[in-house]
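User: My collaborator and I are trying to settle a disagreement about how two of our proteins should look. Neither of us wants to argue from intuition anymore, so we agreed to look at predicted structures for both before our next call. Could you fold the first one, then the second, and keep them clearly separated?

Assistant: That sounds like a sensible way to settle it. I'll keep them separate. The first protein:
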Amino acid sequence: MRAKTEKLIRNYYAAFNRGDMDTFVSLLAENVAHDVNQGKRETGKAKFRRFMQRMNKNYRERLTNIKIVASADGKHAAAEFVVNGKYLATDTGLPKAKGQKYKLPGGAFFDVKRGKIARITNYYNLQDWLKQIR
Protein backbone atom coordinates (compact mmCIF):
# COMPACT_ATOMS: atom_id res chain seq x y z
CA MET A 1 0.00 0.00 0.00
CA ARG A 2 2.89 2.37 0.72
CA ALA A 3 4.14 2.14 -2.87
CA LYS A 4 0.65 2.80 -4.32
CA THR A 5 0.21 5.91 -2.17
CA GLU A 6 3.68 7.22 -3.03
CA LYS A 7 2.88 6.73 -6.73
CA LEU A 8 -0.46 8.55 -6.29
CA ILE A 9 1.29 11.55 -4.73
CA ARG A 10 4.04 11.51 -7.41
CA ASN A 11 1.32 11.51 -10.09
CA TYR A 12 -0.46 14.38 -8.30
CA TYR A 13 2.65 16.56 -8.35
CA ALA A 14 3.59 15.53 -11.90
CA ALA A 15 0.14 16.65 -13.10
CA PHE A 16 0.55 19.93 -11.17
CA ASN A 17 3.93 20.60 -12.77
CA ARG A 18 2.52 19.87 -16.25
CA GLY A 19 -0.42 22.22 -15.61
CA ASP A 20 -2.76 19.26 -16.25
CA MET A 21 -5.59 20.31 -13.94
CA ASP A 22 -7.99 17.61 -15.16
CA THR A 23 -5.60 14.83 -14.12
CA PHE A 24 -4.61 16.76 -10.98
CA VAL A 25 -8.22 17.00 -9.77
CA SER A 26 -9.09 13.45 -10.90
CA LEU A 27 -6.74 12.08 -8.22
CA LEU A 28 -8.91 13.59 -5.47
CA ALA A 29 -11.86 12.07 -3.62
CA GLU A 30 -15.20 13.81 -4.32
CA ASN A 31 -15.32 15.26 -0.80
CA VAL A 32 -11.61 16.07 -0.54
CA ALA A 33 -10.72 18.27 2.45
CA HIS A 34 -8.25 20.99 1.47
CA ASP A 35 -6.52 22.85 4.29
CA VAL A 36 -5.30 26.01 2.60
CA ASN A 37 -2.04 27.43 3.96
CA GLN A 38 -2.84 30.32 6.33
CA GLY A 39 -6.53 29.79 5.57
CA LYS A 40 -9.53 27.67 6.33
CA ARG A 41 -10.56 24.20 5.22
CA GLU A 42 -12.47 23.87 1.97
CA THR A 43 -14.32 20.67 1.11
CA GLY A 44 -15.08 19.13 -2.27
CA LYS A 45 -13.58 18.90 -5.73
CA ALA A 46 -15.54 21.91 -7.02
CA LYS A 47 -14.04 24.22 -4.38
CA PHE A 48 -10.59 22.77 -4.98
CA ARG A 49 -10.92 23.39 -8.73
CA ARG A 50 -11.99 27.03 -8.09
CA PHE A 51 -9.01 27.45 -5.73
CA MET A 52 -6.66 26.16 -8.43
CA GLN A 53 -8.20 28.44 -11.06
CA ARG A 54 -7.42 31.44 -8.84
CA MET A 55 -3.93 30.13 -8.12
CA ASN A 56 -3.16 29.52 -11.79
CA LYS A 57 -4.38 33.02 -12.69
CA ASN A 58 -2.23 34.72 -10.05
CA TYR A 59 0.84 32.47 -9.84
CA ARG A 60 2.99 30.27 -12.05
CA GLU A 61 4.62 27.59 -9.91
CA ARG A 62 6.76 24.53 -10.43
CA LEU A 63 7.74 22.18 -7.64
CA THR A 64 11.24 20.70 -7.51
CA ASN A 65 13.19 18.48 -5.10
CA ILE A 66 9.99 16.59 -4.26
CA LYS A 67 10.39 14.01 -1.48
CA ILE A 68 7.45 11.74 -0.60
CA VAL A 69 6.95 9.34 2.31
CA ALA A 70 3.91 7.23 3.10
CA SER A 71 2.77 5.08 5.99
CA ALA A 72 3.00 1.30 5.59
CA ASP A 73 -0.80 1.03 5.26
CA GLY A 74 -0.88 3.77 2.60
CA LYS A 75 -3.47 5.84 4.46
CA HIS A 76 -1.19 8.81 5.14
CA ALA A 77 1.58 10.55 3.24
CA ALA A 78 3.74 13.63 3.43
CA ALA A 79 5.77 15.54 0.87
CA GLU A 80 8.34 18.28 0.99
CA PHE A 81 9.44 20.31 -1.99
CA VAL A 82 10.75 23.63 -3.23
CA VAL A 83 8.22 26.02 -4.77
CA ASN A 84 9.70 27.97 -7.69
CA GLY A 85 7.22 30.62 -8.66
CA LYS A 86 6.31 33.89 -10.28
CA TYR A 87 3.63 36.23 -8.94
CA LEU A 88 1.60 37.10 -12.06
CA ALA A 89 -1.51 38.97 -10.91
CA THR A 90 -2.38 40.62 -7.60
CA ASP A 91 -4.19 38.22 -5.29
CA THR A 92 -6.87 39.49 -2.88
CA GLY A 93 -5.38 41.02 0.27
CA LEU A 94 -1.78 40.57 -0.87
CA PRO A 95 0.85 42.99 -2.20
CA LYS A 96 0.75 44.13 -5.81
CA ALA A 97 2.02 41.62 -8.35
CA LYS A 98 4.81 42.82 -10.65
CA GLY A 99 6.11 39.51 -11.96
CA GLN A 100 8.18 38.88 -8.82
CA LYS A 101 9.97 35.54 -8.65
CA TYR A 102 10.16 33.51 -5.46
CA LYS A 103 11.63 30.27 -4.20
CA LEU A 104 10.66 28.73 -0.89
CA PRO A 105 10.35 25.36 0.83
CA GLY A 106 6.92 23.87 1.23
CA GLY A 107 5.23 20.74 2.43
CA ALA A 108 1.97 18.86 2.38
CA PHE A 109 0.22 16.14 4.34
CA PHE A 110 -2.27 13.73 2.82
CA ASP A 111 -4.96 11.26 3.83
CA VAL A 112 -5.71 8.61 1.22
CA LYS A 113 -8.91 6.59 0.98
CA ARG A 114 -9.82 4.04 -1.69
CA GLY A 115 -6.91 5.11 -3.90
CA LYS A 116 -7.82 8.82 -3.92
CA ILE A 117 -6.51 11.81 -2.01
CA ALA A 118 -9.07 12.57 0.71
CA ARG A 119 -7.23 15.38 2.55
CA ILE A 120 -4.49 17.82 1.60
CA THR A 121 -2.90 20.13 4.14
CA ASN A 122 -0.42 22.53 2.53
CA TYR A 123 2.24 24.57 4.27
CA TYR A 124 4.78 27.19 3.29
CA ASN A 125 6.19 30.15 5.17
CA LEU A 126 3.98 33.10 4.21
CA GLN A 127 6.33 35.64 5.80
CA ASP A 128 9.25 34.30 3.72
CA TRP A 129 7.12 34.59 0.57
CA LEU A 130 6.05 38.15 1.44
CA LYS A 131 9.66 39.16 2.02
CA GLN A 132 10.65 37.77 -1.39
CA ILE A 133 7.93 39.53 -3.38
CA ARG A 134 8.21 42.99 -1.78
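The second protein, kept apart from the first:
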Amino acid sequence: MNILVVRTDKLGDFITALPTMYVLKKHNPQNRIVVFVAPLNKSLAESCDFIDEILIDDGKSSLFALARKLKSAKIDLSITLFSNTRVALAQFLAGIKGRYAPATKIAQIFYNHRVKQRRSEVKMAEFEYNLALAREVFTDIDLSFPKPLLQFDDSKAIYEKFCQENEITKELIAFHVGFGGSSDANWNLDEYEVLIRDILTQEKYDVVLTFGPDENALREEMQKRLGNKKVVFYLSNEGIVHFAKLIANFKLFVSTSTGTYHLASLVGTPTMTFFGDSNFASAKRWKSIGNEKLQKHYMLPMDAEKREAMFESVRKELLSL
Protein backbone atom coordinates (compact mmCIF):
# COMPACT_ATOMS: atom_id res chain seq x y z
CA MET A 1 0.00 0.00 0.00
CA ASN A 2 1.25 3.47 -0.90
CA ILE A 3 0.60 5.77 2.09
CA LEU A 4 1.03 9.52 1.82
CA VAL A 5 1.83 11.40 5.04
CA VAL A 6 1.41 15.16 4.74
CA ARG A 7 3.20 17.68 6.95
CA THR A 8 4.28 20.70 4.92
CA ASP A 9 5.11 23.20 7.66
CA LYS A 10 8.24 23.99 9.71
CA LEU A 11 11.12 21.85 10.98
CA GLY A 12 9.79 21.18 14.47
CA ASP A 13 6.33 20.35 13.13
CA PHE A 14 7.84 17.90 10.65
CA ILE A 15 9.84 16.18 13.39
CA THR A 16 6.62 15.64 15.37
CA ALA A 17 5.37 13.71 12.32
CA LEU A 18 8.32 11.30 12.09
CA PRO A 19 7.03 8.80 14.68
CA THR A 20 3.83 8.44 12.63
CA MET A 21 5.82 7.66 9.51
CA TYR A 22 7.94 5.17 11.46
CA VAL A 23 5.00 3.22 12.93
CA LEU A 24 3.23 3.05 9.57
CA LYS A 25 6.32 1.44 8.05
CA LYS A 26 6.82 -0.85 11.05
CA HIS A 27 3.17 -1.94 10.94
CA ASN A 28 3.74 -3.42 7.50
CA PRO A 29 7.20 -3.17 5.91
CA GLN A 30 5.51 -3.60 2.54
CA ASN A 31 3.85 -0.23 2.99
CA ARG A 32 5.46 2.41 0.81
CA ILE A 33 5.68 5.57 2.91
CA VAL A 34 5.54 8.70 0.77
CA VAL A 35 5.91 12.04 2.55
CA PHE A 36 4.77 15.45 1.42
CA VAL A 37 6.98 18.11 3.00
CA ALA A 38 8.33 21.64 2.70
CA PRO A 39 11.72 22.07 0.92
CA LEU A 40 13.42 22.81 4.25
CA ASN A 41 12.77 19.26 5.47
CA LYS A 42 13.79 17.30 2.38
CA SER A 43 17.32 16.39 3.52
CA LEU A 44 16.13 15.26 6.95
CA ALA A 45 13.45 13.10 5.34
CA GLU A 46 16.12 11.54 3.11
CA SER A 47 17.99 10.45 6.25
CA CYS A 48 15.08 8.35 7.53
CA ASP A 49 15.16 4.73 6.36
CA PHE A 50 11.44 4.36 7.08
CA ILE A 51 10.59 6.92 4.37
CA ASP A 52 10.49 5.57 0.82
CA GLU A 53 9.69 8.62 -1.29
CA ILE A 54 9.66 12.37 -0.79
CA LEU A 55 7.37 14.85 -2.50
CA ILE A 56 8.05 18.56 -2.08
CA ASP A 57 5.54 21.38 -1.80
CA ASP A 58 7.33 24.63 -2.48
CA GLY A 59 4.11 26.59 -2.12
CA LYS A 60 4.50 28.01 -5.63
CA SER A 61 3.22 25.22 -7.88
CA SER A 62 -0.30 25.57 -9.19
CA LEU A 63 -3.02 23.52 -7.58
CA PHE A 64 -3.35 21.35 -10.67
CA ALA A 65 0.41 20.75 -10.89
CA LEU A 66 0.30 19.68 -7.26
CA ALA A 67 -2.57 17.31 -7.94
CA ARG A 68 -0.70 15.78 -10.88
CA LYS A 69 2.36 15.23 -8.69
CA LEU A 70 0.26 13.40 -6.10
CA LYS A 71 -1.57 11.37 -8.71
CA SER A 72 1.70 10.20 -10.27
CA ALA A 73 2.76 8.76 -6.90
CA LYS A 74 -0.18 6.31 -7.08
CA ILE A 75 -1.28 6.93 -3.50
CA ASP A 76 -3.77 4.51 -1.94
CA LEU A 77 -4.52 6.56 1.16
CA SER A 78 -3.29 9.76 2.76
CA ILE A 79 -2.90 10.92 6.35
CA THR A 80 -2.72 14.69 6.57
CA LEU A 81 -1.37 15.70 9.97
CA PHE A 82 -1.78 19.42 9.41
CA SER A 83 -3.97 20.64 6.60
CA ASN A 84 -4.73 23.69 4.53
CA THR A 85 -7.21 24.11 1.71
CA ARG A 86 -4.55 23.88 -1.00
CA VAL A 87 -3.14 20.48 -0.01
CA ALA A 88 -6.62 19.15 0.82
CA LEU A 89 -8.05 20.06 -2.57
CA ALA A 90 -4.95 18.75 -4.38
CA GLN A 91 -5.48 15.33 -2.77
CA PHE A 92 -9.15 15.37 -3.76
CA LEU A 93 -8.27 16.25 -7.37
CA ALA A 94 -5.55 13.56 -7.39
CA GLY A 95 -8.25 10.96 -6.73
CA ILE A 96 -6.75 9.54 -3.53
CA LYS A 97 -9.45 7.18 -2.29
CA GLY A 98 -8.84 7.26 1.46
CA ARG A 99 -8.06 10.73 2.79
CA TYR A 100 -7.67 11.06 6.59
CA ALA A 101 -7.24 14.38 8.41
CA PRO A 102 -8.28 16.22 11.58
CA ALA A 103 -11.77 17.68 11.33
CA THR A 104 -10.71 21.31 11.46
CA LYS A 105 -10.93 24.35 9.17
CA ILE A 106 -12.78 24.56 5.89
CA ALA A 107 -10.22 22.16 4.36
CA GLN A 108 -11.93 19.23 6.07
CA ILE A 109 -14.67 19.13 3.41
CA PHE A 110 -12.15 17.65 0.94
CA TYR A 111 -11.38 14.64 3.18
CA ASN A 112 -13.58 11.57 3.39
CA HIS A 113 -12.26 10.46 6.80
CA ARG A 114 -12.49 13.41 9.18
CA VAL A 115 -11.23 12.78 12.71
CA LYS A 116 -12.32 14.97 15.62
CA GLN A 117 -9.24 15.70 17.71
CA ARG A 118 -9.66 19.25 19.11
CA ARG A 119 -5.92 19.77 19.42
CA SER A 120 -6.50 23.19 21.00
CA GLU A 121 -7.63 21.36 24.16
CA VAL A 122 -4.08 19.90 24.43
CA LYS A 123 -5.09 16.52 25.80
CA MET A 124 -1.96 15.10 24.14
CA ALA A 125 1.28 16.35 22.67
CA GLU A 126 1.37 17.25 18.99
CA PHE A 127 3.28 14.08 18.04
CA GLU A 128 0.75 11.98 19.98
CA TYR A 129 -2.14 13.55 18.06
CA ASN A 130 -0.26 12.64 14.88
CA LEU A 131 0.13 9.04 16.02
CA ALA A 132 -3.56 8.89 16.91
CA LEU A 133 -4.41 9.56 13.26
CA ALA A 134 -2.41 6.47 12.25
CA ARG A 135 -4.56 4.42 14.63
CA GLU A 136 -7.67 5.71 12.86
CA VAL A 137 -6.38 3.96 9.74
CA PHE A 138 -5.02 0.79 11.36
CA THR A 139 -6.76 0.07 14.66
CA ASP A 140 -4.23 -2.60 15.65
CA ILE A 141 -1.11 -0.54 14.93
CA ASP A 142 1.69 -0.46 17.53
CA LEU A 143 2.44 3.22 18.20
CA SER A 144 5.77 2.66 19.96
CA PHE A 145 8.98 3.95 18.40
CA PRO A 146 12.67 4.02 19.37
CA LYS A 147 14.22 6.93 21.24
CA PRO A 148 16.31 8.39 19.78
CA LEU A 149 14.44 7.85 16.54
CA LEU A 150 17.33 8.95 14.32
CA GLN A 151 21.01 7.99 14.62
CA PHE A 152 23.95 8.49 12.27
CA ASP A 153 27.03 6.28 11.83
CA ASP A 154 29.31 9.25 11.12
CA SER A 155 28.03 11.52 13.89
CA LYS A 156 30.96 10.96 16.25
CA ALA A 157 33.54 11.57 13.52
CA ILE A 158 31.89 14.88 12.62
CA TYR A 159 31.88 15.91 16.27
CA GLU A 160 35.53 14.96 16.78
CA LYS A 161 36.53 17.01 13.76
CA PHE A 162 34.52 19.96 15.08
CA CYS A 163 36.24 19.70 18.46
CA GLN A 164 39.67 19.54 16.87
CA GLU A 165 39.02 22.57 14.65
CA ASN A 166 37.70 24.62 17.59
CA GLU A 167 40.15 23.44 20.30
CA ILE A 168 37.36 21.91 22.36
CA THR A 169 38.65 19.68 25.15
CA LYS A 170 35.60 19.34 27.43
CA GLU A 171 32.00 18.27 27.05
CA LEU A 172 29.94 20.84 25.15
CA ILE A 173 26.89 22.76 26.29
CA ALA A 174 25.09 24.53 23.44
CA PHE A 175 22.96 27.64 23.63
CA HIS A 176 20.66 28.47 20.73
CA VAL A 177 19.47 31.99 21.54
CA GLY A 178 17.42 32.65 18.40
CA PHE A 179 14.02 31.30 17.50
CA GLY A 180 12.77 32.34 14.05
CA GLY A 181 9.40 33.54 15.30
CA SER A 182 7.98 30.10 16.13
CA SER A 183 8.04 30.37 19.93
CA ASP A 184 6.00 32.40 22.39
CA ALA A 185 8.70 32.61 25.04
CA ASN A 186 12.41 33.08 25.39
CA TRP A 187 14.99 34.78 27.56
CA ASN A 188 16.39 38.04 26.21
CA LEU A 189 20.04 38.31 25.18
CA ASP A 190 21.07 39.90 28.49
CA GLU A 191 19.62 36.93 30.35
CA TYR A 192 21.25 34.42 28.02
CA GLU A 193 24.57 36.20 28.51
CA VAL A 194 24.28 35.67 32.28
CA LEU A 195 23.54 31.96 31.81
CA ILE A 196 26.46 31.51 29.43
CA ARG A 197 28.88 33.37 31.70
CA ASP A 198 27.76 31.18 34.60
CA ILE A 199 28.79 28.06 32.69
CA LEU A 200 32.08 29.59 31.59
CA THR A 201 32.95 30.65 35.16
CA GLN A 202 32.76 27.03 36.30
CA GLU A 203 35.37 25.99 33.71
CA LYS A 204 33.78 22.54 33.70
CA TYR A 205 32.33 22.59 30.17
CA ASP A 206 33.08 24.22 26.86
CA VAL A 207 30.32 26.37 25.31
CA VAL A 208 29.05 26.67 21.76
CA LEU A 209 26.45 29.13 20.56
CA THR A 210 24.58 27.84 17.51
CA PHE A 211 22.86 29.98 14.89
CA GLY A 212 20.78 29.29 11.82
CA PRO A 213 22.14 30.31 8.41
CA ASP A 214 20.07 33.52 8.46
CA GLU A 215 21.16 34.56 11.98
CA ASN A 216 24.54 36.09 11.22
CA ALA A 217 23.54 39.44 12.74
CA LEU A 218 22.58 37.67 15.95
CA ARG A 219 25.89 35.81 15.94
CA GLU A 220 27.78 39.10 15.58
CA GLU A 221 25.83 40.57 18.50
CA MET A 222 26.71 37.64 20.75
CA GLN A 223 30.33 37.83 19.64
CA LYS A 224 30.43 41.46 20.81
CA ARG A 225 29.04 40.40 24.16
CA LEU A 226 31.22 37.34 24.70
CA GLY A 227 34.11 37.75 22.29
CA ASN A 228 36.70 37.83 25.05
CA LYS A 229 35.55 34.45 26.33
CA LYS A 230 36.36 30.95 25.08
CA VAL A 231 33.13 30.39 23.16
CA VAL A 232 32.52 28.83 19.75
CA PHE A 233 30.08 30.81 17.59
CA TYR A 234 28.75 28.27 15.11
CA LEU A 235 26.74 29.40 12.08
CA SER A 236 24.99 26.34 10.66
CA ASN A 237 25.62 26.65 6.93
CA GLU A 238 26.07 22.94 6.19
CA GLY A 239 22.44 21.89 6.35
CA ILE A 240 20.05 20.38 8.87
CA VAL A 241 21.45 16.84 8.66
CA HIS A 242 25.04 17.93 9.35
CA PHE A 243 23.78 20.03 12.25
CA ALA A 244 21.83 17.05 13.63
CA LYS A 245 24.94 14.86 13.47
CA LEU A 246 26.93 17.49 15.34
CA ILE A 247 24.46 18.25 18.13
CA ALA A 248 23.87 14.54 18.75
CA ASN A 249 27.12 14.62 20.75
CA PHE A 250 26.44 17.66 22.93
CA LYS A 251 26.11 17.41 26.71
CA LEU A 252 23.06 19.70 26.68
CA PHE A 253 21.13 21.83 24.19
CA VAL A 254 19.61 25.00 25.70
CA SER A 255 17.00 26.89 23.68
CA THR A 256 13.44 28.06 23.39
CA SER A 257 10.82 25.74 21.93
CA THR A 258 11.80 25.90 18.29
CA GLY A 259 12.86 23.55 15.49
CA THR A 260 16.40 23.07 16.77
CA TYR A 261 15.07 21.84 20.13
CA HIS A 262 13.06 19.17 18.33
CA LEU A 263 16.11 18.29 16.24
CA ALA A 264 18.29 17.87 19.33
CA SER A 265 15.74 15.61 21.00
CA LEU A 266 15.26 13.63 17.79
CA VAL A 267 18.92 12.54 17.91
CA GLY A 268 18.97 11.86 21.66
CA THR A 269 20.58 15.02 23.06
CA PRO A 270 19.47 16.20 26.53
CA THR A 271 17.56 19.48 26.28
CA MET A 272 16.68 22.44 28.48
CA THR A 273 13.80 24.24 26.80
CA PHE A 274 11.71 27.36 27.45
CA PHE A 275 8.01 27.45 26.58
CA GLY A 276 5.22 30.01 26.66
CA ASP A 277 2.91 29.93 29.66
CA SER A 278 -0.22 28.93 27.75
CA ASN A 279 -1.78 25.67 26.62
CA PHE A 280 -1.12 26.47 22.98
CA ALA A 281 2.62 27.07 23.50
CA SER A 282 3.16 24.71 26.40
CA ALA A 283 5.51 21.80 26.91
CA LYS A 284 2.40 19.64 27.30
CA ARG A 285 1.65 20.24 23.63
CA TRP A 286 5.13 20.70 22.18
CA LYS A 287 7.31 18.29 24.14
CA SER A 288 9.59 16.60 21.68
CA ILE A 289 9.65 12.98 20.54
CA GLY A 290 12.79 12.02 22.46
CA ASN A 291 13.17 10.41 25.86
CA GLU A 292 11.22 12.56 28.34
CA LYS A 293 13.84 11.90 31.01
CA LEU A 294 16.30 13.87 28.88
CA GLN A 295 13.97 16.87 28.51
CA LYS A 296 13.90 19.69 31.07
CA HIS A 297 10.98 22.09 30.47
CA TYR A 298 10.41 25.60 31.80
CA MET A 299 7.17 27.53 31.23
CA LEU A 300 8.16 31.21 31.25
CA PRO A 301 5.54 33.31 33.10
CA MET A 302 4.42 36.73 31.93
CA ASP A 303 4.59 38.16 35.46
CA ALA A 304 7.96 39.91 35.92
CA GLU A 305 8.51 38.75 39.50
CA LYS A 306 7.71 35.13 38.67
CA ARG A 307 9.90 35.32 35.59
CA GLU A 308 12.82 36.56 37.68
CA ALA A 309 12.33 33.71 40.14
CA MET A 310 12.28 31.17 37.32
CA PHE A 311 15.43 32.67 35.84
CA GLU A 312 17.22 32.03 39.13
CA SER A 313 15.94 28.43 39.06
CA VAL A 314 17.39 27.98 35.58
CA ARG A 315 20.73 29.40 36.73
CA LYS A 316 20.86 26.95 39.62
CA GLU A 317 19.94 24.07 37.35
CA LEU A 318 22.76 24.89 34.95
CA LEU A 319 25.28 25.43 37.73
CA SER A 320 24.43 22.05 39.20
CA LEU A 321 25.43 20.17 36.05
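Some points you might bring to the call about the second protein. The chain has two domains: 2-137, 155-319. The first strand starts at residue 2 and ends at 7.
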